[in-house]
Specification:
The protein is mainly α and 92 residues long. The chain has four helices and two strands, in the order E-E-H-H-H-H. Helix content is 49%, strand content 7%.
Length: 92
């Protein structure tokens, strides 16, 4: 049971469009068997469960969306946020 009984609002998706992804990420987005998933779900899962190489692929494929989502969720690790910020600064 949660200590704080305040109801948390669900975070709404900004990127709900369905995108194709390489088969190697199928294990991260397990509920979508056809290698297509909502972009925000794909990015969040790679941030949560992916490796450094996955972060690089993701940022180079979807730079603006990756940077925005890294700032949006509290549960994303600080290492992921660091690399998104670093690559974003290098790009601008």
């Amino acid at each position: 049971m949660r200590k704080n009984k305040t109801k948390r609002e669900r975070i709404k998706w900004n990127y709900s469009q369905t995108v194709s992804f390489p088969e190697r990420y199928q294990k991260l987005v397990w509920e979508h068997i056809n290698c297509k998933a909502p972009l925000e779900k794909l990015i969040h899962r790679i941030f949560t469960y992916g490796r450094f190489e996955d972060l690089q692929w993701l940022y180079h494929k979807y730079p603006d969306q990756s940077f925005a989502i890294s700032k949006k969720y509290d549960d994303i690790k600080r290492g992921v946020k660091f690399w998104m910020e670093y690559w974003h600064d290098q790009r601008t």
